[in-house]
Write a structure and sequence with these properties.
mainly beta; seven-stranded mixed β-sheet
């Protein structure tokens, strides 16, 4: 099974940017589709963006035009460039992967998860 390691979380001012990384190690079979999820304090984990090895990308409506997901297949690393951050983006960001996902922004579609990286956006 793959091991996922997120990095890049930080504290920023509203309007700022961050670039999160998720490096996958181990078997690559279960990293065909990779996604980022956001969990705000006291709320459920929500899908933010996903990408598969065929280049198919999906975004949650709340981040369209602000966030960009990309993947370096040689490094088996997925990135999330986040621009124009707002206080509502505060929370933990988790990376997830699997060999297949019917709905790539649903948390229960994924079996493999990282530990998360904290993002704090102050107004």
């Amino acid at each position: 099974q793959p091991q996922l390691m997120e990095s890049g979380g930080d504290s920023v001012q509203a309007g700022g940017s961050l670039n999160l990384s998720c490096a996958a190690s181990g078997t690559t079979f279960s990293t065909y589709v990779m996604a980022w999820f956001h969990q705000a304090p006291g709320k459920e984990r929500e899908g933010v963006a996903s990408i598969d090895n065929d280049g198919l990308i999906a975004y949650a409506d709340s981040v369209k035009g602000r966030f960009t997901i990309s993947k370096d297949r040689r490094k088996n690393t997925v990135y999330l460039l986040m621009n124009n951050l707002t206080p509502e983006d505060t929370g933990m960001f988790y990376c997830a992967s699997d060999s297949y996902a019917e709905d790539t922004l649903r948390a229960d579609e994924y079996n493999y998860w990282g530990q998360g990286t904290q993002v704090t956006v102050s107004s």
